[in-house]
Amino acid sequence: MQFKEILKMALSSLGANKLRAALTMVGITIGVFSIILVMTAIGALQNSIESGISFLGSNIFQFAKYPVNIDAGGGNVKKKYQNRRNITYQQAVRYYELMQGNASEICLKCFGREIKGQAVYNGVKTPPSLTVVGTNRSFLTANAFTLGYGRNLNDEDVALARNVAVIGKGIEKRLFPHESPLGKVLRMTGHTYTVVGVLAEKGTSFGESQDDFFLMPITRFFENYGEANRTVNIATQPFSTELYNRTLDKGISAMRIARGLKADQDNDFEIYTNDSLKSAFLNVAGVVSIGAFVISFIALVAAGIGIMNIMLVSVTERTKEIGVRKSIGARSRDILRQFLTEAVFISEAGGILGILLGVLGGDLLAMWLKVDVIFPYGWAIAGLIVCSAIGIGFGFYPAYRAAALDPIEALRYE
Questions:
Q1: 20, 70, 135, 377: which could join 139 in a potential S-S bond, CB 3.0 to 4.6 Å?
Q2: 340 with 391: CB under 8 angstroms?
Q3: For the segment 226-280, what is each residue's pLDDT rounded down to a tens digit?
Q4: Total of domains in the chain
Q5: Domain boundary among 272, 307, 325
Q6: Residues 109 and 11 reside in one and the same domain
Q7: 152 near 215, Cβ under 8 Å?
């Protein structure tokens, strides 16, 4: 028999039992959907890692109290870092002094996470969700921001603790839709600030706006909101890529001196770079991928057992049909190929539906996180190959039983 005839007969047989075939496909669809959904979402995030995870500027290392993935270690690990000494402003200034001449940019920054930042100008208010940061002139370089217009914070602003601010594009659009904000005085959380600069638009990252930043001199930040229970992050950019490792070594030594650590004491601060941030993300993504794979594997095995069960029932129901076909010349291998074709078709149809739903769900998640959508061709092809293997693997025994039937006994079957 030609394969075209075998395929036609297989589809005709499945069409006679549409509901049973559809229910059998559901198990395959669920298994493939779960893995494709996760891998599509992770792939989209990995493609956007430079603009999302990599919030540090180029060729920069940073010292901080907490590691980037503090929540991954559980409560005891988190408590360990919470009990660690804060990096005080005095220590940060000492580090700054020790590193003068050894780095092109040194950014001191402190985030007011608990401050419900809401700016007000002429009765118009922003949402109470601004990111308030006390920093110096190096914030833009260290965090991959650019100045839209106006001027940046400068060393004199920090030295004199001036009430000046550089605002994000989102704040400008909300409070100053028809005028320039430069030189205007706005009020935020009980304090007034003169706007001296506006950041260029940066968009969103993982669903969080990067255009709602409110930057002020770090000294003014501490005067207005207090220094107690706050920790300073320090970002450093070497003069060149070639000097990166040397500058990092000097930075660690300067940080240990600023923290007052003795030679036999371990570092009580974290060091991270864009590479370490990417590595932390990939570690989490790897765990999620393994979990999704295990769940999908169990679902696919259960679906394969379902395919085998349905095909065995089909062999029993069509015993007489098999006998008739053999008696008029059908060979055992024709019967084997027909039943295998039916099993593979059920598996592939469920797999294709699972891939489409998984890609759709993963890209919807990517759109919600404001990252580029993708189609994971590699995983889609792998999914189709796995579905074929399941169809052949779990469909072979029922197909073999059908092919091995004795035509005389099959014709007698009622």
A1: 135
A2: yes
A3: 988 899 999 998 888 888 889 999 999 999 999 998 888 888 888 887 666 666 6
A4: 2
A5: 272
A6: no
A7: no
